Amino acid sequence: MDNAISHSSVSAPVANHTIPPQASAPVEFPPEIWREIAAVASADSVLTLRQVSRDMRSVVDSLDQADLNRINQGTDSTVDLYSSDDGVRSVTRNPATQSVMARAENILPALQEFFAHSNNANIRWHLARNPSLSSEAAQQTLTQDLDEWVRGALALNPSLSSEPRQQTLAQDQSKRVREALARNPSLSSEAAQQTLAQDLGAVVRSYLAGNPSLSSEVAQQILAQDLNAMVRGYLARNPSLSSEARQEVLSQDQYASVRRDLAGNPSLISDARQQTLAQDQNAEVRRHLAGNPSLISDARQQILAQDQNADVRAALAGNPSLTSEARQEALAQDRDEWVRSNLARNPSLTSDARQEKLAQDPNRRVRAALARNRSLTSARQERLARDQDTAVRRDLARNPSLTSTVQQILAQDQDVRVQLLLREELSWLTARRR
């Protein structure tokens, strides 16, 4: 055998290890193949078909698994001879390396299936949480894994889009696994959602109630009637809660915290629901509604603009949906400075007349808030650039919407701090444009 080397006659170096002589039938390789195997092993990584020679692939393909096992025996750092979509011929035994491979981006399906059967739970856990886990066969195997941490990692993986897999995990005996699935943003199975909505664990139901992917009307109905107020609260603020019936139930909830969460939900577009909450006896409920960007009804805004609670009026004053000049005019004259300050910084405050009124406000905090408003007109910028209060001019210097004329005025301000803040803002804007 001049052209072949066998395990029984020569110990070949592989990744600083030697392959010991074997008593079984020898595995014969040409010398150049042994050299390439050694190079592959020392690379300590997964190699694809493109990275290994045709001769090496041909030789390795001719071996059965028993031969490959004999080649790897006695080493702890053997790597893939090669891997492809068609299968894995030999994989490293080094757990640390396998863990890296299992969590690698765009891991090959063949490797996914191989690692899903690994005896090392840590390796399976890394694979189970890998966003690139696309193999249905690997997911199926991990769904039935004996380790709940592995199943939990899979349950939270956004790549878990298979409805059968989701339904299986929704019935998992481990609460940790069901909690993870309930949080999964890819939870699309309505059957799984309905199962989790009836889970005995309140934390599971809470996670599900707050999951933006909650689309099942049946599940929402179950959760809206949940005995636990925390669960109902999570559902009340879920942006996927678009059902008028569910919102009606929650708007009449006995707990103010639940009604408050609903009042701040951007999906609350029903005028009837807004009307109910605008007249709620609890000020916190009305405050959350007043700040809700979906509050576009002028009638609802008028009610809240006249609310006796200053916090409610302040929330409305800062709401970007507040476009009514009549409402802005009323709030610009509010007796509470916090209300006027919130209106002054509101980006929807584009009226030059309203801005002029606030630019003359006796309270410097109101004028300072206006100075930072990016919707500030050029005329009001010039007025505030000459404000007697240094704090107002300093806030104006931080405004990224200043005209060149106002920049020149502030660049010559008698307060050094105003000049410094202006230079810092202009420098930041220049760097951002690059």
How does this model look, in words?
The protein is an all-alpha fold. Helices cover 56% and strands 2% of the residues. It has helices at residues 31-43, 54-61, 65-72, 95-102, 109-116, 121-128, 136-143, 148-156, 163-170, 175-183, 190-197, 202-209, 217-224, 229-236, 244-251, 256-263, 271-278, 283-290, 298-305, 310-317, 325-332, 337-344, 352-359, 364-371, 378-385, 390-397, 404-411, 416-433; strands spanning 13-14, 17-18, 83-84, 87-88. Strands 1-2 form a two-stranded antiparallel sheet. Strands 3-4 form a two-stranded antiparallel sheet. Strand 1 (13-14) and strand 2 (17-18) form a beta hairpin. It is flat.
- Nearest-angstrom radius of gyration? 33 Å
Total beta-strand segments: 4
Output the number of helix runs. Answer: 28
Beta-strand level of the residues, as a percent range?
under 5%
Broad structural category: mainly alpha
Q: List the uncertain runs.
A: 1-27, 74-79
Mean pLDDT: 84
Distance between the termini: 68 Å
Q: What kind of sheet is the major sheet? A: 2 strands, antiparallel
* Residue share in helix: 55-70%
Overall geometric form: flat
List the strand order in the largest sheet.
Answer: 1-2
